[in-house]
């Protein structure tokens, strides 16, 4: 039976109910059954929770974490950093370098600030096997975060430990005694992110310029299941590596120099999924695990953090 949403049933405006009524008459005339319904309601937050109802998460120490400072690889030149990820190629294949788009058999076409590497040297990344001008790889590294890691521009394989440029802030996490839609068998993990506005550092798009931080504190939700706790542990690694947020241009408002999400999706709706940022969503936990893996954060990362 098709449903016809009716808005403002108790309001003063007769327009929406009238349109629904006309639609219902036309459908009835065509011999179609009609069922008038109210539109579903957006539920962003859980019912009120007292402090005594909030619980810490078993197996996870503390309930709050602040941004750690970037772990820069000091004393190493870009050439020294990249050397451990590369093998030299004496006879380059007959194909283009996907960074500068010149043939690998010809010198690099990179025209920016010149690295201290000969433009005709070619190297192969050891894990994925993709081949580039060394000149181009060093230039790409210099234009990035310079944190001792490298990400293949062709297949996104990560070498080393990738870190981001997330500005300083705080991440809180605890259990609340309410269930998410689709997860009625468990309680809920609530994450609260809080990042204040500030001034951009040297790793940000416009160093020295102020940045805004809209919509904070941001509340996000995970089921308190085995897989939900696994996701939380990996999100804590992402937070420590400054990968959850970045400074850039908002895709929703168009505002520049503001704090934005950084390719790791979160659920910010508690009791509905009208915007696609809530529950039920049977694929979400698997999807976010894949997004974390794309940032180099897997179960192996948890062992590395302990080490």
UniProtKB/TrEMBL annotation:
Pathway, per record: Protein modification; protein ubiquitination
Name of the protein in its database record: E3 ubiquitin-protein ligase
Cellular-component GO terms for this entry: cytoplasm
Domain of life: Eukaryota
Molecular function (Gene Ontology), one example: ligase activity
Matches recorded under InterPro entries: Deltex_C, Deltex_C_sf, Deltex_fam, Znf-RING_euk, Znf_RING, Znf_RING/FYVE/PHD
Family: Belongs to the Deltex family.
Assigned EC number: 2.3.2.27
Places the protein is found: Cytoplasm
Keyword list, A-Z: Cytoplasm, Ligase, Metal-binding, Notch signaling pathway, Repeat, Transferase, Zinc, Zinc-finger
Gene name for this UniProt entry: Dtx4
Domain RING-type residue range list: 97-156
PROSITE patterns in the cross-refs: ZF_RING_2
UniProt organism field: Corythaeola cristata (Great blue turaco)
A biological process term (GO) from this entry: protein ubiquitination
Catalytic activity line of the entry: S-ubiquitinyl-[E2 ubiquitin-conjugating enzyme]-L-cysteine + [acceptor protein]-L-lysine = [E2 ubiquitin-conjugating enzyme]-L-cysteine + N(6)-ubiquitinyl-[acceptor protein]-L-lysine
């Amino acid at each position: 039976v098709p449903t016809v949403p009716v808005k403002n049933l108790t309001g003063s405006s007769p327009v929406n109910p009238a349109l629904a009524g006309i639609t219902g008459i036309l459908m009835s005339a065509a011999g179609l059954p009609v069922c008038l319904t109210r539109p579903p309601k957006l539920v962003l937050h859980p019912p009120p929770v007292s402090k005594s109802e909030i619980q810490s998460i078993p197996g996870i120490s503390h309930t709050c974490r602040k941004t750690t400072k970037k772990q820069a690889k000091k004393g190493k030149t870009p050439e020294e950093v990249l050397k451990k990820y590369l093998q030299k190629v004496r006879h380059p294949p007959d194909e283009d370098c996907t960074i500068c788009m010149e043939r690998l058999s010809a010198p690099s076409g990179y025209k920016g600030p010149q690295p201290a590497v000969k433009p005709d040297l070619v190297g192969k990344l050891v894990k994925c096997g993709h081949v580039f001008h060394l000149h181009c790889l060093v230039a790409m590294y210099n234009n990035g975060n310079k944190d001792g890691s490298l990400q293949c521009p062709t297949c996104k394989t990560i070498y080393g430990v990738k870190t981001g440029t997330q500005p300083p802030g705080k991440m809180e996490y605890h259990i609340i005694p309410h269930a998410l839609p689709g997860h009625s068998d468990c309680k809920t993990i609530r994450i609260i992110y809080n990042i204040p506005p500030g001034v951009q550092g040297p790793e940000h798009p416009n160093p020295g310029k102020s940045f805004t931080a809209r919509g904070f504190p941001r509340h996000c939700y995970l089921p308190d299941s085995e897989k939900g706790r696994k996701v939380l542990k990996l999100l804590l690694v992402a937070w420590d590596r400054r990968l959850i947020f970045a400074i850039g241009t908002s895709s929703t408002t168009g505002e520049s120099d503001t704090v934005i999400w950084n390719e790791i999706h979160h659920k910010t709706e508690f009791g509905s999924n009208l915007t696609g940022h809530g529950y039920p969503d049977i694929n979400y936990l698997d999807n976010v695990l894949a997004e974390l893996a794309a940032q180099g954060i897997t179960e192996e990362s948890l062992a590395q953090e302990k080490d």
